[in-house]
Amino acid sequence: MSSLARRLLFAAGWQLAGNASRMALGLVASVLFVRWLGADQYGQAAWFLSLTLYINIIVSAGLGTPLTRRLAICRARGDRAGMLGLLRRLLALRALSLVPAALMLLAAAIWLPATTGPRVLVWYVLAILAVSFVNASMVRSLQVCFRQDVMALLTSGEVVVKLGLVWWWSHGTATAATLLGAGAVAEGLSTLVAAWFLSRSLPKRAPGVPAPAVADEDAPGLMALLREGRPTWLLSLAERILGREIDVLIIGLLASPAQVTVYTLGYTVANLGISLTTSAAESTTNLTAFTEAGTAGKGTPRRLLRAMTEFWLLLVVPAAVGGAVVGPRVLKSFYGSAAEGAGVVCAVLFAALALMALAAIGRDALLGAGRDRRAVIVFGAGGLVNLALSLLLTRPLGALGPALGTLAGAIVTTALIFRREVTPAALWRGRRPLLVCAAALCGLAGAAKLTAELGPGTLTLLATIAAGALAYVLVLAILKPRTSLRPVACAWRGPVAMLRVIL
C-alpha cells in the first residue's frame, strides 16, 4: 500500500470518528437549544448564521481550492517555508476582507425586515466572521497535513464549548444573541488550539539541509491566488445557492423564523444521516488525494473515483432511504411541537443530500484535475434551479418549498456531472452492485417495518434503526456485491475499506 493510501486510511478513520461525535453532540445541542431558545429565537439565530456563511463565501475570493492544491504540493516535498508563506498570504487577504464584510453587514442592518430579528445581531455576525477567517485557514492546513485526529478533537470540542457557554450565560433566558456569541467564542478557542497543533504538524526540515527551491508559480502573490481562485469562488457561491444557506435566507425573508426552525431541524436530521456515511471521504482530503494521485498516472484517479461512487451506492443510499422513513419519527421524539411539519421536509432533504453527496465526488474529481470552470457550470445550473423554485414555492408551501427546490437542483446537478462531465466508464463495472444494493434495501425495509410495529416510543425508534441497519449489513455480506471494494469488508467496515484503493 502506498504512502498516500496509508494517509487516506488514517484520515478516514479519524474523520469518521470526529464527524460522528460532532454530529451526535450537535444533535443533542440542537435539541437543547430549541428548548432553551424556543422556535422563534432559534430560527433567528439560524438565519443570521446563514447570513454569516454567505458573507464569508463572498469575501473569501475562492482561495480554498488553490490553497489546498498548493499546500498539498508543498507538503509532499517537505517545504515548510512554502506552506508558511502561503498561509501568511492568505491571512493577509482575510484581514483585508473584514472591511467589505463590515460594509455588507452595515447595509444589511439598514434594510433587513424586523421579522429576521434585532439588527444588533449583525455585529455578532461580524465577530463570528473575524474568527472564522483565521480558523478556516488553520483547519484547511491541518487537513492537508492529514491531521484528522486533531480535527476530531476540535470539531467535537467546539460543540461542547458552545453548549456550555449558552447554558452558563442564559440562566433560563437564552436568546439568539446568546447562541451567536457562544459560537464566536467557541470558534475562537478552536482557532487557537488549531494553530498550536498546526505549528507541530508542518514538515520539519533537517538541520543543515536547505529548503527546496520554490518556483515562482508555487509561491504566488495575492493577485495570482485571486486569479486562480476565481472559478472556485464562483463554485462556492453556486454550491451555497444550491444548499441550505440560501433556503434559510429566503424562508426568513418570505415566511417566518418559526418556518426557518422547521427547515433547519429537518436539515439537521437529514444531514446527520448522510454525513455519517460520507465523513470518511471529506472534500478537502478527496481533493488532496485526487491532486496527488493524478501525478501517478495509470488511471489512478479513475480507480479512486470508482471506489468512491461504489461507496456512495452501498452506504449513502441506504442511509437516505432509511432516514427518509424514520426521520419524521426522530424529529417528533427529539424536538416535539417545534418540529411540527418538519417530517416531510426531512424526507425530501434526505434524497437531496444523498444526490449532492454523489455530485460532490464528481466535483472533487474535476477540481483535482484542474477543471474548475466545468464544476462551476454544473453546480451553477443546479443552484439556479433551486433559487427559482425556492422563491416561487416558499410563500405557498413554507419550509417545504425550498426543500423541493433543493431536491430539483440536486437532480439537475447530479445528472449533468455524471452524464457529461465524468466518464460513465469510471463508475460501476457491472450490474451486480446495483442488484445487491436493491436486495439489501429490501432487507432493511422489512426489518425496520417489523420492529416499528412494536409500538411508539424512543426505544422502539432506536430498535427500528438498529434492526434496519443490521439487516442491510447482513444481506450485503451474504450476497457480496463484488465491487472494487473488498466485498465483506465493505459491509462491515465500509468507510475504511472504501479507501483501500491501489494508488
Give a verbal description of the structure:
By secondary structure, the chain is mostly helical. The chain is built from 18 helices and no strands.
Helical segment count? 18
Could you tell me the mean pLDDT?
Answer: 76
What's the Cα radius of gyration?
22 Å
Helix content: over 70%
Task: Describe this structure in a few short sentences.
The protein has 503 residues and is mostly helical. The chain has helices at residues 3-60, 64-76, 80-111, 121-144, 148-170, 176-199, 222-242, 244-254, 257-278, 283-294, 300-335, 342-368, 372-397, 400-421, 432-452, 458-479, 487-492, 494-497.
What's the arrangement of secondary structure elements?
Blueprint: H1 3-60, H2 64-76, H3 80-111, H4 121-144, H5 148-170, H6 176-199, H7 222-242, H8 244-254, H9 257-278, H10 283-294, H11 300-335, H12 342-368, H13 372-397, H14 400-421, H15 432-452, H16 458-479, H17 487-492, H18 494-497
Helix pairs in contact: 1-3, 1-4, 1-5, 1-6, 1-7, 1-8, 1-9, 2-3, 2-4, 2-7, 2-10, 3-4, 4-6, 5-6, 7-13, 8-9, 8-13, 9-11, 9-12, 10-12, 11-12, 11-15, 11-16, 12-14, 13-14, 15-16
